[in-house]
Every structure is written in structure tokens, then in C-alpha cells.
Amino acid sequence: MMKKKPQRMCVSCRTRRDKKDLLRIVSDQEGNVMYDPTGKASGRGAYLCRNKECIMTELKARRLAKGLKTGIEKEDLEKLASEILELCGKDGGDAE
Ligand SMILES: [Zn+2]
Questions:
Q1: For residue 68, is it within any domain?
Q2: Which domain holds residue 68?
């Protein structure tokens, strides 16, 4: 029997990928949105591909905020975006 890897959908491009290939963004009870490197933080989560296009598209379109049902500020989104992009860069950027 095949073991199925957990899959999640990128909220930006709607591609299904292995959970480990996606970035998890989580919003906590106070509505703070942050990157969740463990994938285990409690709160409402959304997933994004590890590529610049998905991250930028999503954060600019503010669909992420909608998905997380939080009124995140533009400045916070931009901060989060640069944080994530920096992390992606460190990973070598060859996830795709
Ligand atoms: Zn994507």
C-alpha cells in the first residue's frame, strides 16, 4: 500500500504539493501573522510555495490575509514577505 504524503495547496497558485515543500503562514489568536517554520504552530494556517512569485503575489493581493481571516496591515505583510524571501534565499532557492 502506498503511503500518502500529506499535501497542501498553495493559496497563491493553487498547486498541491507535499506539505514539506510549502511554507506555512499562521495567524494566532491576536491576529498576528507569522511564518511558521515548524508547521505546528497553533492558529489558522495558509500555505505558500517556496518561490518569490507565489509569496509576492499572495502578499500583495492580500488574499492571504483573507484566508487567515485577519486584518493584517500592509507594513506587516511586507515585513513578513521580506522575512520569508530571505529564508527562501538561504534554502538555495532551488526548491522548484
Ligand atoms: Zn504557489
A1: yes
A2: 7-90
CA dist., res. 3 & res. 11, Å (int) = 25
Ligand 1 center to residue 1 CA distance, Å?
29
What is the CATH number for 69?
3.30.1230.10
> What tens digit of pLDDT does each residue of 33-84 get?
888 988 899 988 889 998 888 988 887 766 666 666 667 777 777 888 888 8
- Secondary structure of 49-83 as H, E, C letters: ECCHHHHHHHHHHCHHHHHCCCCCCHHHHHHHHHH
pTM above threshold 0.70 = yes
Q: How far is the CA of 51 from the centre of ligand 1 (A)?
A: 7
